[in-house]
Input
Amino acid sequence: MHHETTAPAEAAGTRLVLVVDDEPANQRALRRALRDECEVETAGSGAEALAIMARRAVALVIADQRLPGMSGTEFLAHTVREFPSVIRVVLTGYTDVETLLDAINAGHVYHFLTKPWETRELRQVVRRGLERHAAEAERVRLLGELERACARARREAEQKDRLLTMSAHELGTPVHIALNAIGLLQDAEVPGAAREWLQTAERALHWLARGVTQLHTAAAVQQRPLRVRPEPIDLGRLFADVADALRGVLQSRRLQFTTTLDQTAKGLRADPRWLRQAVWDLLTNAVRCTPDGGWIRLAAHGGGPEVVVEVSDSGIGIAPECLGEIFEPFSATTGDPLLHGSGRFQFGARGLGLGLAVVKRIADAHGGRVTVRSAPHGGSCFALHLPRSA
Output
């Protein structure tokens, strides 16, 4: 047995071929034939070969079928269990079909070479086997990187969800205390200039309270499965309610608002609370993205087993490269969250980037989906597809 004192090679980059044959002449012949292709090490038995493989990263094994102590088939079966990534080649002078089948079944053999072998064929088999080993090693490496990246992403998502929950909890109480305190001060006798500052502070705190509410809602739907309690929905009444809530804003900004309720949209069962939240988020998103004097449409129609609620606008639209992440929490498509405006429904006002993410979770919880069609400066159309019975 010939042994070279080299450092163990990395499995992903090794080109070491192990020849297992009890005939020294065959070992020398195989070494000469392969010396320009790869590094070669030899062993005279299966046990000796397994010992070498335990300390060196072998890429490919060429094993004679007739070996002392254990057959080539038995040896290769050991390598399948202990070194599954190794490429296996059987070298045999036998033509017994059962022997070859045993080698295939037990040893996961890549190729057969019969004695006497041809040098060109041997080199070709080894070259392709090493390429296959390298490709599999690269696949395993990339898969490992992907798994590590997914684990990091999961940890970051969990940290973000915890931050949402903590922020909503920790900010909510002091905001409400401050609002109550300002209300008491406004009831007291304060100078006119101070009263103006109190009103400004009250508006700012109301804006902050809305942000805390958004954080609380987002945390509720992100951290645990959203539970829906379906019941028959009167879409006409729901549309009227949200329209009444936005009437002042629509009038002050001269936004033309229309609703269309097709007869085919009847028979929807959904959670009224979460459905209203989804429609509200889509409408307020349209209000903020539509210039003064534009139009917004709220419509519903049926299509087979589902009902589709659509919110369309003549707003600024969305760039194609942003559509893939529009429903992600804190999406960059809503602008830099550090630069958000304090306005609630003004054109161009930005929230925390949570509304559309909440809409998607609501749609998912109902067994539905939300889609968007949009183009820069061409408006947008968000469609909430819901099964008639969630």
Q: What stands out?
A: The radius of gyration is 35 Å.
